[in-house]
Amino acid sequence: MFVILLSYQKPLAELDRLMPEHVQFLEEGYRSGVFLACGRQVPRTGGVILAVGTDRAAIESLMTQDPFVREVAATCEVIEFRTSLHHPALAAFADPRTRSVADVPPWGGA
User: Fold this and answer.
1) Considering only 37-51, 56-70, 87-101, which range has the smallest mean pLDDT?
2) Structural domain includes residue 109
3) What CATH number corresponds to the domain at position 58?
4) Is 107 part of a structural domain of the chain?
5) I want to staple 4 with a disulfide (CB 3.0 to 4.6 A). Which of 26, 49, 61, 65 is the partner?
6) Residue 62 lies in a domain
7) How many CB atoms lie within 10 A of CB 2?
8) Residues 18-60: pLDDT tens digits?
9) Distance, CA of 42 to CA of 100 (rounded, Å)
């Protein structure tokens, strides 16, 4: 799994100008099965993308196509990690050598 951190480098007006193309990029990432979730940081200083894959170089290459990164409106940090424990709902995306936690409530149960 990967956590991708975007840090804004330009004013929000510039990011807002690129937003439609950025959203299109994100939607393509979901359709290709790479992106699981994304959103803005709070406060709005960047973004976060949760992605799956086994090839860090492929994720890094994909992120160069993000309009925010391509236009140097944001920097991108790709953090790779292996799950140790995971919610059962994430089993399809977690490292198969790890286990899910038993007896956890479904999403929204907290």
Assistant:
1) 87-101
2) no
3) 3.30.70.1060
4) no
5) 49
6) yes
7) 19
8) 999 999 999 999 999 999 999 999 999 999 999 998 899 999 9
9) 29
Strands, E assignment, the chain: 2-8, 35-40, 46-51, 74-80, 85-86, 99-100
- Which amino acid is it at 97? R
Q: Which domain holds residue 74?
A: 2-100
Q: Are strands 74-80 and 85-86 parallel, antiparallel or unpaired?
A: unpaired
Whether residue 8 lies inside any domain: the answer is: yes
> Distance between CA atoms of 41 and 26, rounded to whole angstroms?
16
Count the domains in the chain: 1
What is the value of pTM for the model shown? 0.89
Question: Residue 70 is which amino acid?
Answer: R
